[in-house]
Design brief:
InterPro entries: P-loop_NTPase, ParA/MinD_ATPase, YlxH/NBP35. It is a single chain. By secondary structure, this protein is an alpha/beta fold. It has a single domain, classed as P-loop containing nucleotide triphosphate hydrolases (Rossmann fold). The protein is about 45% helix and about 15% strand. Strands 3-4-2-5-1-6-7-8 form an eight-stranded mixed beta sheet, sandwiched between helices. Helix 2 packs across helix 12. The N terminus is likely disordered. The structure holds adenosine-5'-diphosphate and magnesium ion. Magnesium ion (MG) binds next to helix 2.
């Protein structure tokens, strides 16, 4: 080989292809049935309304239902990505994504739970990197709790949306999950979201902050008919029920995410002394 040919040409090209552009958001919860899928799909569609490239990865590899929530019939799932892993690059991965009418691109979960084991840590790592290279946001709907693969996704994410509600058992487990995040040094990137915050319960939405020791919470109201109808017909409520309170809450969250990101991208490189004293950056 001539000496002027760079020896590391291929890895360099490869790393350019994987150069990170997007922000990864992992949507998680300590218990199932709390609203991770509902939030993941509606948030993704709300973000995409702003001319932003959004990808969703269904990270509930056993029982993923992102496709169902978006009324998609996937021709490919992450199982096909695994089978083509040897030749995978950003362009190949794009071919496995399912296009939703909103513009959101979805990497579906395997269609049977027994295939979940095929999705190894290496697959998750590569797929997230390639999706982040091609999208401004990668929203990941994770499996329940802190099982191994969900934890990998949480560790890899830039921000973690941890959903809870006003039920005693959910709050108790959310607190345990938050404590574990603290032990793992992941707590700083967690934003707790109280879903169904207007539901009837002995615990009031206003108590959650004290119980969990979380200063800033995001609240999403309880709107059973809108949300369950949306899931049943596979049309995210932000698309056709934009005036409902639940949709407004999701749009507000999307706007906060966008403006925080704009501030992060455009902030001056060297803040003045006054700025650094008085301007403490805050997540959401
Ligand atoms: N804000 C909400 N208001 C009313 N019902 C909701 C809300 N969010 C979720 N739900 C309901 O909760 C159930 C579980 O939601 P889902 O997103 O499938 O949970 P997960 O993905 O955490 O298992 C669904 O039946 C859905 O209709
Ligand atoms: Mg789900």
């Amino acid at each position: 080989m001539p000496s002027d040919v760079p020896q590391n040409d291929v890895p360099e090209k490869e790393s350019k292809l994987k150069e990170k552009r997007g922000e990864m958001i992992a949507v998680c919860s300590a218990k199932g049935g709390i609203g991770r899928t509902v939030l993941a799909v509606n948030l993704a569609v709300a973000l995409s309304k702003n001319n932003i490239q959004v990808g969703i990865m269904d990270g509930d590899f056993q029982f993923g239902d992102v496709s169902l929530a978006l009324d998609l019939h996937p021709t490919f799932t992450i199982k096909d990505v695994v089978e083509g892993l040897d030749t995978l690059d950003a362009f190949a991965l794009a071919g496995y994504l399912i296009h939703h009418s909103s513009g959101v691109k979805v990497l579906a979960a395997p269609d049977r739970p027994e295939y979940a084991d095929l999705v190894t840590h290496e697959v998750i790592h590569q797929v997230c990197d390639y999706m982040l290279a091609q999208h401004d946001y990668l929203i990941v709907d994770t499996g329940v709790g802190l099982q191994e693969k969900s934890l990998q996704l949480i560790e890899k994410a830039d921000q973690v949306f941890m959903l809870t509600n006003l039920e005693m058992a959910t709050i108790k487990n959310t607190k345990l999950m938050l404590e574990t995040m603290e032990l793992l040094g992941l707590k700083d990137k967690v934003q707790v979201i109280v879903n169904r915050s207007t539901m009837e319960s002995v615990i009031q939405a206003s108590d959650v902050s004290d119980i969990l020791g979380e200063e800033t919470l995001v609240y999403i109201p309880n709107q059973i008919s809108t949300v369950s109808q949306s899931l049943n017909i596979g049309i995210p409520f932000v698309m056709n029920q934009g005036k409902t309170d639940v949709a407004k809450a999701v749009f507000k969250l999307a706007e906060q995410m966008i403006s925080r990101r704009e501030i992060a991208v455009f902030k001056p490189k060297a803040p003045s002394l006054l700025q650094s004293i008085f301007h403490k950056p805050k997540m959401i």
